[in-house]
């Protein structure tokens, strides 16, 4: 392990190589920055499981230049400090990255967070919006406020790990693969290309008033055993939210809260569930689900 404590570690070589198992860069009160003129900071993690993986506890900040953090290697690494402010973006090229905290700030404009304040670029691998707490091997799901870009030709996965996570920034590029049996809430004005496929777990959308582009502009396919929740974590139960996507439903779709309008075409297959049926232990929710498009 590398103990930073409360000091500042400047990486003159521009990176860290994490090998073996259970390797931590410790010191939640410490700081890491890049000593390269380019500001790039590389993290190479070799193969490791979640339990026996790598964690970086100090915050990462800009040095003399705007710092971009690049994660390489087939292993996993947890970015554990929610106070990181590096602004040059986070690049996941391979393997996986976990989060150790939520972002601070509004969607698309975080003031600090585990992946800094710039755009998160997923060139490959898997983003897990949860992580490993100090001394334990589980954590809650977190909110990631960074914008996310998935370049053309890339194959990237976002896995909630059975927990509840929020992506409040905007997702652009190509559509990611959503996995995990928990809930992934999409709150950004997303512009990714392609159809949104829900094969497991739940996607939550429609938290704000007006037309939502949480599912971008393509079709949405909700497969058997998966769920789409509109009106999830609303900003007000008086909202009127409009979801314009065409939807093919073989799983479950329901309005959770506020006034939810489905304005695209809805193709409902056998054994699917569609309605305003969710209620939180009798609390005031599910004001209404309105189907405005063609139904088949």
Can you walk me through this structure?
- The chain is an all-beta fold and 296 residues long.
- Helix content is 0%, strand content 41%.
- It is built from no helices and 35 strands.
- The chain has strands at residues 2-3, 8-11, 15-18, 24-26, 31-34, 40-45, 54-56, 59-60, 68-72, 76-79, 90-92, 96-99, 104-106, 109-112, 120-122, 126-128, 143-144, 148-150, 157-159, 164-167, 171-173, 177-179, 183-186, 196-198, 202-205, 210-211, 220-222, 227-230, 240-243, 247-249, 252-255, 259-262, 266-268, 273-275, 288-291.
- The chain has an 8-stranded parallel β-sheet, with no helix packed on it.
- Strand 13 and strand 14 (109-112) form a beta hairpin.
- It is elongated.
- The relative contact order is 0.08.
- The mean pLDDT is 89.
Task: List key phrases describing it.
296 residues, mainly beta, eight-stranded parallel sheet, seven-stranded parallel sheet, elongated
Biggest beta-sheet profile: 8 strands, parallel
What is the number of strand segments?
35
Strand % is: 35-45%
Distance between the termini: 59 Å
Q: Give the structural class.
A: mainly beta
- The number of helical elements comes to 0
Task: Summarize it.
The chain is mainly beta and 296 residues long.
